[in-house]
Amino acid sequence: MLFTFLQLGTPSIEELLPFIIMGVFAAGDILLLKLALVVTKAQKRTRMKWVAGSFAIQFGIIFIISSPLFLLGFMGKFKGEPDAIIPIVILSLFIDINVINVLHQVGLKRSFVILLLTFVPLILIMIELGVTLSHMP
């Protein structure tokens, strides 16, 4: 799929659709993060610039934690077994709570509330990214 973007010509909508979906989920998650910060009455780093940066940091950390599964999927060794996914998701949840707490200084309870509102779109982006990357030639 990525190979077609490097070719001359215009890619079809079917090739662009996964990237559009990931972009919509990312934009929605940034807005959910902003809403969660307002609901939890966060006092620090609540401007949109910080919210987008916080999303990028969270996404990057979860991507790095999940990268071994992506690599195993590329090699054909990983087919989506839950015994490998569940520890990765739990580790991502734990680290994400702490990243939210450090960046926005809202406390662990409020960080957990923020995480509940924003983690599902992050996971959906990662799933879509994994499916898209696994269908590359």
Number of H/I helices: 5
What string, H for helix and E for strand, traces the elements in order? HHHHH
Task: Report the β-strand fraction as a percent range.
Answer: under 5%
Q: What gyration radius follows from the Cα positions, in whole Å? A: 17 Å
Mean pLDDT: 84
Structural class estimated from helices and strands: mainly alpha
| Shape descriptor | globular
State the helical fraction. Answer: over 70%
Distance separating the two termini: 7 Å
Poorly predicted segments: none
Number of strand segments? 0
The profile of the biggest β sheet is: none
Structural notes for this entry:
It is a single chain. This protein has helices at residues 2-5, 13-39, 48-75, 82-104, 108-134. With 137 residues, it is mostly helical. The protein is globular, with a radius of gyration of 17 Å. The model has no long low-confidence stretch (mean pLDDT 84).
Brief characterization of the structure:
The protein is mainly alpha-helical.
Provide the fold topology.
Layout: H1 2-5, H2 13-39, H3 48-75, H4 82-104, H5 108-134
Helix pairs in contact: 2-3, 2-5, 3-4, 3-5, 4-5
Keywords, separated by commas or semicolons:
globular, mainly alpha, 137 residues
